[in-house]
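TL;DR need structure tokens for one chain.
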Amino acid sequence: MIVARQKRKENIAEYLLYMWQIEDLIRANGLDIEKIKQTVIAHYDQPETVKREITQWYEELIEMMRSENVVEKGHLQLNKNVIITLTDLHLRLLKSPKEMIYGAAYYKTLPYIVQLRAKSGGEDLPEIETCFNAIYGYLILRMKGEKISDETMEGIRQISAFLALLAEKYRADMNGELRLED
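>> reply
TL;DR here they are.
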């Protein structure tokens, strides 16, 4: 909760990846708040009041996961909304004549997106979600200690740079600093 709040303010891409990790952490603990208290919350160096707040946050996420039927897989609507918001911003950036650098970064990333979509078995996801899936998959492989090919690393680097630029544009937009029209 503390990390999520901070990441949401600073970097929306890191926030979304963190929240996907939290979803998986909750699943790995069987949506059991007692297990989460033992395996996660107990390790926080925080006062009891903050730990209670963190516990409540996890309980709310667990309840959302149950009510939204994403217990085994999928993402919470609040995380899907981030993808929707970023996709909308992405499309606005592509249409803006002032955002040629963003457009160039996107077109440099597009071949990797197309390749990922082909490998995903035709799953029709927004391009931005495809990018996040690639980065999240890479992070999971790294945590497992699996070897990553040079070709995959090249794609991950390009997608990461693209998402970093999008996150930067998002922050500017949220701060009222993004001017797409005259």
